[in-house]
């Protein structure tokens, strides 16, 4: 391999750097969200161009920037919208801005506008993404890896001279992580290490090294190609040095990073350099966990911040700006249970995860990592975290049927479930509660900070929903009162009462004297009290519940103040330490900060209000299930003009309990995905969030559910479909059986098509037309309104098309209202428009499909369950298809939108399969059936391609702008180009995708996940970030197109190799050697398994068509060399 | 409405469910305890009573009986609403022997008039009124009791009273010397709206009054000066401009608490009269409030029926502050009046009343840990009587008597000519001054007697021939008899005797017989007699006269024994000597046997009848009433008897010679009369206010054997848990069984008293328990006292309790369960506590029967198969249950037939 010593040095000097670069890329993604994908990719592309010069200049420039990274890191907390521009701080090195500027210049070469936009708006400094390899490892392994990393980091630091830059140090650390000593030949050392390390790690390491080698080769190539870039090398190097240093920090901090990831980064980078790549952005949005936010002071700025968390991220939110200041993300697969500020050091945040890991994060300093990773043996931490100087960290641990209060050891095991814990008076008292019990602990000896507690467990007759404790220091003058303090307790119950205990310390009295006076009862809430808190001075009690009313109880006079008509039910209330703010976490995934004095909102943090996935138990009938499933598909669109605005039908409140009322989505939320900010929310249907929403029988009144949303091309018109059925309990008396009940409900179904016009002045959608019952019910039933199964917008002009269960397609067009031949004008000189059904086309209902004559058809079989509707790009053609239970094959009808004629009817799109989605892309017609994607050439009227998908719920999005379409199956997403025979991009997001939306322009795709997070998948012009490594998915999940897609693409080949290597770690030497060779001559290597996967399908009838097979084989061998591909 | 139904299979009884009796209930307008707490008393506590004043002017005296609440007596009013009640107690006196005679407790009331009325509790009627030159009295209050101070030269002083009038005048009245005298005007507040709404004493010298002009004024009675006035400010938006101070009370520490028409409760400092705190307790007017004895709890009641409780707690920095604890809708109407009694260990309740007429008991000390309980709004003594043979039932209120006839079942079911199930056959509006206190009808329905406090009226009823109605004829009785007035009366079973209890609790008897001239008419024999009551030595009591008031009177089924029981539980009994001799003179008056030698000639008896001296002996048809020779052996009951009834004895046909054999008038013995005592057993079955059950053999003066075997403890658990007291009892002795049907306002209970109804084990258990208690370790006693509830309802069930009732305490890994309620399990235990000391005789009897355990068991087996008891709560509230009889059915087939008169709520 390495020939001369110089070469070796060079290699060794370079290799780590490259590794670093990639590592930086990988983890910069983790924490660096301020720069957009595009920006990053562009900057990196530049970097790569000058990759080899860097190697030379490294040592000279690296030293100058020793302090730089840390400074930058420290600045990052305050980076907000204009982060890049306001970089200079008093301490800033002058070099730094130039580097930034360089970056900017480089960006200009690429796509200036986009980049800047992205840069400015992405406010985050820290974000995830610790996926892929991380998931492979178990926690223990992770912990050891972490330790190893830490050790290694310290060691080089100790041995290196004072001149050694932090960046270099970091570099080494990473190399160590990769299993190689920077001072030696990486290959050899990796061998050594292999013997010492565990198998899995080993394999990854080897791979990483192998990648390093390949990287080197590539860098050489690039060097030749990109000589002109050398002039910028100095700055680039600086920048890189910073990044590297940052990376090191990241690795240190995350502790969750591991070698394999780093290795993968290498590979990814190498690939991405070669041509534009698809990449997933980091996650935005998410749901706040059900935990009290914490008010804190941000030490650098002194600003008030609110610390809260989503499942995977700790967020520090600025109360001043309503923006996140910094975030800290966990790797996937771990969710945050609870967090708490350290009492002694309010800048440290203790975090407990659901797998029992707890660690400390210095939240005030940006970029600091978890300092204290203490794996506990807790199998599951129920949450509830309290921190104290005395006992240290207290948390609740759940075991079978009961809960324990833990610190370093089990302090108390309760017989009932406990949910939350609170300490007061420096840990002299510990109070924990669950629905059925209240546990009070008093430290035996208040003087010493021991962990000896006296515990009292009080069973509760009505379930406790919330609790707040408050210590009242007793008057020092009061005589012989030995008790240090009195503990007041406010306990909220499910029956809407708040019980107020003035002093609960009496329960700790001796056996005979122990008593508990009857509590004060505050009863205003109709339903369960969700949150209750004392004000700072104890004279008020603040409570909230489902009524969407904040109640302030003046405890002395029994007077109540109300803040009614909040947008959603109150889940959490927190009072700031100064008492001047209330933070209210609400059911619509938002946190509002109110000023105490005026009850005016100070800040609002609204998340994406995507409806929670509801785990449906006890399936009723398959049909009903199916119907519900369909109706619950996410109704969301992207605004065509404002590419980052996501319009989403959302529920009034995130359902805590599965009721009809909670599931319905009567609101439209506009969410800016770029800034991860809530824009507006408006009601689309009648709703009763803030009214009395219980019927006479105390059943919730169900609002309508918005099932479809569509927006016209010009962004002026929004069409929504909402549906309402009376709750089953209302019509139950009419029926005797389930079927009758379903029928009775359907008879009373109400369906409205509403068309809204954008009112620029008000910034609202105003209702323009409402169509009652636009479609009839299937099977010619007259009672009730038929469901609308599909709604699409005309891609060219204002207009919508609907397809209802009656099998009709209706095309809706605006019509200017004319009076006496003059167009009527409304307010603001807007032409009054009414929407009319311009055309109705009845689809022939399966008469040709051979099953129609079946006499056993019941009316129910004809009820279409699923409909596909798609406009062609020029809106001349409309494809419509209906699937019902009776038909196995689905017909696709092509309608001429101008005449309304059915131009053609085709079957065979879904032979024996359910047609899930259809779409036009250029001259191709794309159908998604279960387990496959088919691309039809409409010109030749032939099936061009068929690509197999894994089974699962599919989503289709077509982006005509870049000529691609994407198919999502559960958590995986594939991007295709019709002309190409393989997936352009494949990814596994490890999170269930609930909606897939085609971005406008070249934005690629937007993915909505069921945890209310959003990511974008975009084609970036240059290597910028690694795509998500799908390494972990390889061994366990089947590749999306493993049958069909021959890994002609090198990336796929790599996938396969990796899979092999993972499977056979013993053959490492050989493998790496081989791969190294292969990397150098860059010819496709086709392994027998790959061939077998194409040819060896077992039964001859299951074989692919000959043409497909041929293409597949050619795909294996006929790959273009990588170099050319990159060019 | 009349619903006829059969009850149960094994305990057959025909029930006429009657809801047609329009008995009016009256709202509660005033409440007062005779003392508010146990503190401040030296020596024995004076008797505790609760006076309940109603809108119709009635005042009911309730005895809390340590939580067993029984309505003892009712003072019928004149129809004017009782607006206020107050008790005073005269200073204690020491008699010549050095024993302390407790001062008498006196009850005063005001009733929308210009007078303060004192009530004679023993007679249950107004005693005196104090009027003066002042306008209508709106409120009044009694001065706190005088307390012995260190300088002993102070003479004990009586309590004054202060009355607030509608014109803003405050009047001082003196109760000294067992009188009620106008003392002087305290103040006169000028102004249009200066009506005094409420008044109270802050201490013995300072009076605090609330006015309708939203002012609170404080006066010093020593110098008639106004100390201070505080304003509530203007009313809340929407309320009248001037807030009414509806109620004002003073806490033990001198702080003043006011409740006003804004629904606010305000606490004022007692010394500097500054506003300490204002609490928004109600959305509407706060009409009344009470405070606990320790001054840490306030309860207020509002016009919407809500009661709020406030507690004083330590606030921030050890500062005491009041806070509303909780509220509860206690009444369906408003809460008009509240009264509290709060002792440290025993009773601690708040009684509230309003337009829903039922007093509500709310625990005070144990608030939240004990349930509230509603007492009955109906009178304890049934206001329903029946003539069982004539199938008439009569009910009365105010000055009216209504009589219905209940059709026979057969007649109702008669297909061709169905009869109306019931018919109002007579309605008597009496020309009397006061309301009717009691009515009695003879079993054959021929005689009806009605009494008021000053009149006795007797009527003969006869069925009209032409219609269903009744012809009513007044029966003339001697003037001196009818003018006695009465509180109780009873016809004997054979309708020959009428016993009346006068307001002074004397017992008089009149004899009715057919008029020899007009055989169809009944007449009252011209002479009536008074029966002497035994004067046993009684413990000095603060209600000494009241304690002797007779509350129940009963004739034996053969009319030969009369028993009367008084409030304190003493029984008086009389027997009818001799045999009826219709040939003898109707009325023969003679001297007692002891001095018959010196007898005058009997001819002047008639003229001398008014001179009814004790020595006179009146013989009616050869029979005369005399004291029961064994009467002194009858024990004092633990409390007032509520059900007093003789076990019916099936008379063995005593076909002896008519009259008194061998008793003939001779010259030496012109008024010969027999001294033969009535034959047979006369077993008196008693249930007292404590629901203790006794059966006494009256002529033997001891407990009957049955009672020895079946003490109270042997009553089924289901019965012992019943809280409403027994009202009356109906015997069912047809056939083989001997059953007793008891009823209270909410329950009907059948008890088989033929055999031994009880299981031996529980009896034995009780005895053991009792013996232990008697062995007299004070600990046990005190522990038991501790176990007593606070006088309201039972302990709150754990699932409904406000706070937790128990906790698990863990220390050093050692777990212990602690009960936070400290409640006590069985309510039946407390009932036994008091018995021991009072009833040595009973105790002895029980102990003696201890040996007969085997017998009990055997008898148990013998009566196996029959229900021993049966209980229902489905009739409510019951005004009365009276027996009826269908003479057409042969006696052996007859089932018990009763009419249960309900008052729909």
From TrEMBL, chain A:
**Which organism's genome codes for this protein?**
Friedmanniomyces endolithicus
* Coiled coil region boundaries: 207-234
WD repeat coordinates: 522-563
Q: Where in the cell is it found?
A: Nucleus, Nucleolus
Matching Pfam families, A to Z?
Answer: Beta-prop_WDR75_1st (PF23869)
Q: Where is the signal peptide?
A: none
Q: Which CDD domains match?
A: Utp17_CTD
Locate the compositionally biased regions of type Polar residues: 183-195
**Classification of source organism:** Eukaryota, Fungi, Dikarya, Ascomycota, Pezizomycotina
Q: What residue spans carry the region label Disordered?
A: 1-197
Q: Where is the composition biased (Basic and acidic residues)?
A: 165-174
Composition skew (Acidic residues), residue ranges: 105-120, 128-141
Q: Which InterPro entries match?
A: WD40/YVTN_repeat-like_dom_sf (IPR015943), WD40_repeat_dom_sf (IPR036322), WD40_rpt (IPR001680), WDR75 (IPR053826)
Name of the protein in question = NET1-associated nuclear protein 1
From TrEMBL, chain B:
Q: Write out the GO cellular component annotations.
A: 90S preribosome; small-subunit processome; t-UTP complex
Biased composition of type Acidic residues is found at 603-612, 826-837
Query: Where does the secretion signal sit in this chain?
Result: none
Domain of life from the UniProt record: Eukaryota
Chain residue ranges for the region called Disordered: 593-612, 765-839
Record GO biological process: maturation of SSU-rRNA from tricistronic rRNA transcript (SSU-rRNA, 5.8S rRNA, LSU-rRNA)
Gene Ontology molecular function: RNA binding
Matching SMART domains: WD40 (SM00320)
Query: What InterPro entries would the database entry show?
Result: UTP4, WD40/YVTN_repeat-like_dom_sf, WD40_repeat_dom_sf, WD40_rpt
Q: Pfam families, alphabetically?
A: WD40
Name the PANTHER family on file.
U3 SMALL NUCLEOLAR RNA-ASSOCIATED PROTEIN 4 HOMOLOG (PTHR44163)
Protein name per Swiss-Prot or TrEMBL: U3 small nucleolar RNA-associated protein
Organism, by scientific name, is Friedmanniomyces endolithicus
| Gene field | UTP4_3
């Amino acid at each position: 391999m390495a020939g001369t010593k110089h070469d070796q040095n060079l290699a060794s000097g370079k290799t780590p750097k490259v590794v670093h670069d990639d590592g930086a890329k990988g983890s910069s993604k983790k924490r660096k969200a301020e720069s957009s994908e595009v920006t990053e990719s562009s900057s990196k592309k530049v970097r790569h161009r000058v990759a080899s010069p860097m190697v030379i200049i490294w040592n000279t420039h690296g030293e100058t920037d020793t302090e730089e990274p840390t400074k930058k890191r420290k600045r990052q907390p305050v980076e907000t919208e204009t982060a890049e521009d306001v970089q200079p701080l008093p301490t800033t090195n002058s070099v730094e801005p130039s580097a930034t500027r360089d970056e900017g210049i480089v960006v200009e070469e690429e796509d200036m506008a986009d980049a800047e936009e992205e840069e400015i708006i992405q406010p985050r400094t820290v974000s995830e993404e610790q996926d892929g390899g991380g998931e492979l490892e178990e926690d223990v392994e992770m912990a050891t890896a972490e330790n190893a990393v830490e050790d290694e980091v310290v060691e080089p630091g100790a041995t290196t001279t004072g001149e050694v830059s932090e960046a270099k140090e970091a570099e080494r650390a990473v190399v160590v992580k990769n299993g190689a000593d920077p001072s030696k030949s990486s290959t050899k050392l990796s061998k050594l290490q292999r013997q010492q390390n565990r198998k899995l790690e080993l394999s990854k390491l080897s791979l990483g090294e192998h990648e390093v080698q390949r990287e080197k080769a590539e860098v050489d190539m690039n060097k030749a190609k990109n000589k002109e870039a050398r002039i910028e090398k100095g700055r680039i190097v600086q920048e890189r040095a910073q990044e590297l240093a940052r990376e090191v920090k990241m690795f240190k901090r995350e502790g969750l990073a591991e070698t394999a990831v780093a290795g993968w980064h290498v590979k990814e980078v190498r690939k991405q350099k070669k041509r534009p790549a698809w990449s997933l952005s980091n996650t935005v949005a998410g749901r706040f966990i059900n935990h009290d936010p914490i008010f804190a002071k941000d030490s650098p700025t002194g600003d008030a911040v609110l610390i809260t968390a989503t499942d995977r991220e700790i967020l520090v939110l600025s109360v001043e700006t309503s923006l996140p200041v910094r975030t800290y993300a966990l790797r996937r697969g771990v969710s945050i249970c609870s967090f708490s500020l350290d009492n002694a050091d309010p800048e440290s945040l203790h975090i407990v995860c659901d797998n029992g890991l707890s660690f400390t994060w210095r939240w005030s300093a940006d970029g600091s990592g978890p300092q204290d990773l203490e794996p506990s043996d807790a199998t599951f931490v129920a949450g509830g975290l309290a921190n104290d100087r005395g006992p240290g960290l207290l948390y609740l641990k759940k075991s079978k049927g009961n809960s324990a209060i833990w610190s370093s050891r089990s302090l108390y095991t309760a017989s009932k479930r406990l949910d939350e814990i609170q300490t007061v008076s420096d840990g002299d008292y510990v109070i924990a509660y669950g629905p059925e019990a209240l546990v009070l602990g008093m430290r035996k000896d208040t003087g010493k900070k021991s962990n000896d507690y006296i515990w009292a467990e009080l069973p509760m007759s009505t379930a406790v929903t919330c609790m707040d404790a408050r210590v009242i220091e007793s008057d020092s003058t009061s005589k012989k009162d030995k008790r240090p303090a009195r503990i007041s307790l406010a306990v909220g119950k499910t029956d809407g009462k708040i019980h107020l205990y003035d002093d609960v310390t009496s329960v700790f009295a001796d056996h005979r004297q122990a008593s508990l006076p009857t509590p004060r009862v505050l009863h205003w809430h109709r339903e369960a009290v969700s949150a209750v808190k004392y004000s700072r001075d104890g004279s008020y009690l603040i409570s909230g519940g489902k009524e969407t009313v904040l109640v302030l109880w003046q405890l002395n006079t029994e007077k109540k103040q109300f803040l009614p008509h909040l947008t959603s039910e109150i889940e959490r209330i927190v009072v700031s330490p100064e008492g001047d703010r209330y933070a209210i976490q609400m059911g619509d995934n938002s946190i509002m900060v109110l000023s105490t004095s005026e009850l005016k909102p100070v800040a609002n943090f609204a998340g994406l209000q995507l409806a929670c996935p509801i785990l449906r138990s006890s399936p009723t009938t398959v049909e009903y299930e199916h119907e519900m499933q369909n109706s619950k598909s996410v109704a969301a669109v992207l605004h065509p003009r404002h590419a980052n605005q996501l319009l989403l039908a959302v529920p009034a409140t995130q359902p805590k309990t599965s009721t009809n009322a909670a599931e319905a989505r009567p609101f439209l939320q506009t969410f800016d995905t770029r800034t991860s900010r809530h824009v507006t929310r408006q009601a689309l249907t009648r709703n009763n969030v803030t009214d009395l929403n219980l019927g006479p029988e105390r059943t919730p009144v169900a609002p309508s559910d918005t099932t479809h949303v569509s927006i016209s091309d010009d962004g002026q018109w929004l069409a929504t479909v909402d549906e309402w059925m009376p709750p089953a309990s209302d019509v139950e008396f009419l029926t005797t059986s389930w079927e009758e009940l379903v029928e009775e409900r359907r008879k009373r179904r109400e369906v409205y098509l509403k068309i809204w016009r954008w009112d620029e002045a008000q910034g609202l959608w105003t209702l323009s037309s409402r169509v009652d019952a636009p479609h009839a019910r299937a099977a010619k039933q007259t009672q009730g309104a038929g469901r609308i199964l599909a709604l699409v917008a005309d891609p060219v002009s204002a207009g919508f098309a609907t397809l209802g269960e009656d099998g009709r397609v209706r095309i809706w067009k605006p019509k200017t209202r004319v009076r006496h031949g003059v167009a009527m004008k409304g307010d603001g000189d807007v032409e009054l428009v009414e929407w009319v059904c311009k055309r109705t086309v009845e689809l022939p209902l399966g008469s040709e499909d051979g099953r129609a004559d079946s006499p056993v058809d019941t009316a129910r079989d004809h009820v279409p369950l699923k409909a596909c509707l798609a406009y062609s790009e020029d809106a001349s053609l409309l494809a419509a298809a209906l699937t019902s239970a009776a038909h196995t094959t689905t017909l696709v009808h092509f309608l001429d939108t101008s005449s309304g004629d059915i131009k053609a009817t085709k079957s065979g799109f879904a032979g024996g399969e359910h047609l899930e989605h259809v779409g036009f892309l250029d001259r191709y017609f794309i159908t998604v059936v279960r387990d496959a994607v088919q691309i039809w050439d409409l010109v030749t009227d032939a099936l061009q391609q068929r690509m197999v998908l894994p089974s699962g719920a599919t989503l289709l999005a077509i982006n005509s702008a870049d000529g691609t379409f994407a198919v999502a199956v559960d958590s995986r997403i594939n991007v295709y180009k019709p002309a190409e025979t393989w997936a352009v991009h494949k990814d596994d997001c490890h999170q269930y995708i609930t909606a897939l939306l085609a971005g406008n322009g070249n934005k690629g795709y937007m993915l909505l996940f069921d945890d209310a997070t959003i990511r974008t998948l975009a084609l970036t012009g240059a290597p910028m970030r690694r795509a998500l490594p799908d390494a972990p998915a390889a061994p366990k999940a089947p590749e999306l197109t493993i049958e069909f897609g021959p890994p002609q693409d090198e990336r796929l080949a790599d996938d396969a190799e990796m899979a092999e290597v993972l499977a056979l770690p013993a053959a490492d030497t050989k493998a790496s050697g081989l791969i190294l060779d292969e990397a150098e001559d860059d010819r496709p290597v086709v392994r027998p398994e790959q061939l077998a996967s194409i040819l060896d399908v077992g039964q001859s009838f299951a074989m692919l068509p000959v043409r497909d097979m041929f293409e597949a084989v050619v795909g294996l061998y006929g790959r273009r060399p990588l170099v050319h591909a990159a060019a | 409405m009349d619903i006829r139904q059969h009850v149960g299979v094994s305990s057959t009884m025909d029930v006429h469910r009657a809801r047609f009796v329009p008995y009016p209930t009256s709202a509660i307008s005033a409440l007062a305890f005779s003392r508010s707490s146990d503190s401040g008393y030296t020596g024995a506590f004076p008797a505790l009573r609760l006076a309940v004043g109603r809108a119709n002017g009635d005042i009911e005296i309730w005895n809390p009986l340590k939580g067993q609440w029984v309505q003892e007596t009712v003072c019928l009013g004149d129809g004017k609403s009782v607006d206020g009640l107050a008790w005073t107690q005269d200073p204690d006196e020491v008699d010549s022997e050095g024993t302390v005679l407790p001062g008498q407790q006196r009850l005063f009331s005001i009733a929308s008039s210009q007078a303060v009325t004192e009530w004679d509790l023993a007679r249950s009627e107004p005693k005196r009124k104090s009027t003066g030159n002042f306008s209508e009295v709106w409120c009044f209050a009694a001065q706190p009791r005088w307390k012995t101070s260190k300088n002993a030269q102070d003479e004990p002083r009586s309590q004054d009273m202060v009355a607030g009038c509608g014109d803003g005048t405050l009047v001082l009245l003196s109760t000294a010397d067992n009188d009620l005298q106008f003392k002087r005007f305290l103040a006169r507040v000028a102004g249009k709206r200066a009506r005094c709404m409420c008044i109270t004493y802050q201490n013995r010298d300072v009076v605090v009054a609330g006015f309708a002009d939203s002012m609170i004024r404080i006066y010093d009675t020593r110098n008639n000066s106004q100390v201070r006035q505080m304003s509530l400010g203007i009313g809340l938006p929407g309320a009248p401009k001037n807030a009414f101070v509806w109620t004002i009370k003073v806490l033990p520490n001198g702080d003043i608490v006011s409740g006003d028409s804004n629904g606010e409760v305000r606490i004022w400092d007692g010394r500097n009269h500054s506003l300490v705190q204002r609490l928004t307790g109600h959305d509407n007017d706060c009409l009344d409030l009470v405070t606990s004895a320790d001054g840490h709890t306030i309860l207020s009641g509002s016009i919407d029926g809500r009661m709020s409780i406030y507690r004083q707690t330590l606030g921030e920095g050890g500062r005491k502050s009041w806070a509303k604890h909780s509220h509860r809708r206690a009444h369906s109407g408003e809460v008009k009046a509240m009264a509290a009694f709060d002792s440290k260990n025993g009773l601690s309740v708040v009684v509230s009343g309003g337009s829903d007429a039922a007093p509500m008991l709310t625990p005070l000390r144990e608030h939240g840990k004990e349930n509230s309980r509603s007492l009955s709004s109906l009178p304890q003594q049934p206001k329903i009587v029946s003539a069982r043979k004539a199938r008439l039932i009569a009910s009365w209120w105010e000055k009216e008597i209504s009589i219905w006839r209940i059709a026979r079942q057969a007649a109702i079911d008669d297909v061709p000519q169905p009869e109306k199930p019931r018919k109002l056959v007579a309605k008597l509006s009496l020309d009397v001054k006061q309301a009717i206190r009691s009515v009695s009808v003879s079993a054959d329905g021929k005689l009806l007697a009605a009494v008021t406090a000053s009149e006795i009226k007797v009527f003969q009823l006869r069925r009209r021939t032409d219609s269903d109605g009744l012809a009513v004829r007044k029966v003339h009785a001697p003037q001196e008899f009818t003018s006695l007035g009465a509180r109780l009366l009873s016809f004997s079973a054979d309708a020959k005797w009428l016993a009346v209890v006068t307001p002074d609790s004397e017992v008089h008897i009149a004899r009715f017989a057919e008029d020899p001239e007009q055989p169809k008419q009944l007449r009252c024999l011209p002479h009536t007699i008074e029966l002497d009551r035994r004067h046993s030595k009684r413990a000095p009591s603060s209600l000494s006269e009241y304690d002797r008031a007779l509350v129940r009177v009963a004739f034996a089924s053969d009319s030969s024994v009369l028993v009367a029981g008084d409030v304190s539980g003493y029984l008086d009994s009389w027997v009818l000597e001799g045999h009826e001799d219709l040939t003898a003179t109707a009325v023969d008056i003679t001297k007692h046997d002891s001095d018959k030698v010196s007898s005058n000639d009997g001819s002047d008896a008639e003229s001398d009848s008014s001179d009814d001296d004790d020595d006179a002996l009146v013989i009616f048809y050869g029979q005369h009433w005399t004291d029961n020779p064994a009467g002194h052996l009858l024990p004092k009951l633990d409390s007032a008897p509520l059900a007093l009834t003789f076990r019916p004895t099936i008379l063995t046909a005593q076909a002896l010679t008519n009259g008194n054999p061998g008793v003939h008038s001779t010259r030496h013995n012109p008024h010969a009369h027999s001294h033969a005592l009535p034959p047979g057993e006369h077993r008196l079955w008693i249930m007292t206010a404590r629901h203790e059950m006794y059966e006494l053999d009256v002529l033997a003066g001891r407990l009957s054997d049955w009672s020895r075997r079946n003490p109270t403890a042997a009553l089924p658990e289901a019965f012992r848990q019943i809280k409403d007291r027994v009202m009356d009892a109906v015997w069912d002795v047809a056939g083989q069984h001997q059953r007793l049907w008891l009823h209270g306002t909410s329950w009907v209970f059948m008890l088989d008293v033929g055999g031994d109804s009880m299981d031996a084990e529980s009896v034995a258990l009780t005895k053991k328990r009792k013996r232990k208690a008697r062995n007299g370790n004070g600990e046990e006693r005190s522990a038991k006292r501790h176990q007593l509830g606070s006088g309201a309802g039972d302990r709150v069930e754990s699932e409904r309790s406000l706070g937790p009732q128990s906790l698990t305490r863990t220390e050093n890994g050692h777990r212990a369960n602690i009960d936070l309620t400290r409640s006590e399990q069985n309510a039946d235990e407390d009932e036994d506590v008091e018995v021991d000391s009072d009833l040595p005789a009973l105790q002895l009897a029980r102990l003696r029967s201890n040996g007969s355990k085997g017998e009990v068991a055997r008898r148990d087996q013998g009566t196996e198969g029959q229900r021993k008891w049966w209980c229902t709560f489905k009739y409510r509230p019951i005004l009365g249950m009276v027996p009826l009889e269908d003479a057409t059915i042969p006696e052996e087939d007859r089932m018990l037939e009763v009419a249960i008169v309900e008052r729909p709520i």
